[in-house]
Design brief:
Distance between the termini: 55 Å
CATH architecture of the largest domain: Orthogonal Bundle
Order of helices and strands: HHHHHHH
CATH superfamily of the largest domain: Winged helix-like DNA-binding domain superfamily/Winged helix DNA-binding domain
Shape: globular
Oligomer: single chain
Strand content: under 5%
Number of helices: 7
Mean pLDDT: 80
Radius of gyration: 18 Å
Low-confidence stretches: 77-90
Largest sheet: none
């Protein structure tokens, strides 16, 4: 094993969970796994071509984000970033620090999985990533009004699928 191989292996082990979590949260399990594989393939190619020094955790996340966006575009889900619709942040969700242990998390993730990829993406972009509707519209080449409409439909779809835990008000 060469030094380059061991550096790549270390980078892979340290960053796989973060890249995987980011991609699967935005695309679902199957597509997220594909994007994760593509990201690390791009990293392996960079290492092979002698540019391994440029491959950092930030580089991996940038590539992941770009590949997620490419996936949305290729799949005809250009409006997936519609959460950028509103400049008003009053409906933004602040996730608790212990979100990974919150009893509502499985129900929220299950509801998002039931939503279409386009609806899931717009909800995540708006509520989790904090993008306003105009920014989403600009990145999609759409109007702010169309993004706001998509976000309203995505909220409605989420509410139809969300089953809160018994103990939660």
């Amino acid at each position: 094993m060469t030094l380059r191989d061991s550096e790549f292996e270390r980078l892979y082990r340290e960053n796989l969970p973060t890249v995987y979590r980011y991609a699967t949260t935005r695309l679902g399990r199957v597509e997220g796994e594909d994007v994760t594989a593509e990201v690390f393939h791009a990293a392996a190619v960079a290492f092979r071509d002698g540019a391994g020094a440029t491959v950092t955790a930030a580089w991996l996340m940038s590539v992941t984000r770009n590949k997620v966006i490419d996936y949305w575009r290729k799949a005809g889900r250009r409006k997936a970033k519609d959460h950028l619709i509103r400049p008003d942040r009053s409906d933004m969700v602040t996730l608790p620090a212990d979100w990974h242990h919150d009893e509502r998390r499985p129900a929220v993730l299950a509801a998002l999985d039931q939503c279409s990829p386009r609806h899931r993406a717009v909800l995540i972009l708006h509520y989790v990533d904090g993008m306003p509707a105009p920014q989403i519209a600009e990145s999609l080449g759409a109007t702010t009004a169309s993004v706001e409409s998509l976000l309203a439909r995505a909220r409605r779809a989420f509410r139809e699928h969300y089953q809160p835990p018994e103990d939660t008000p």
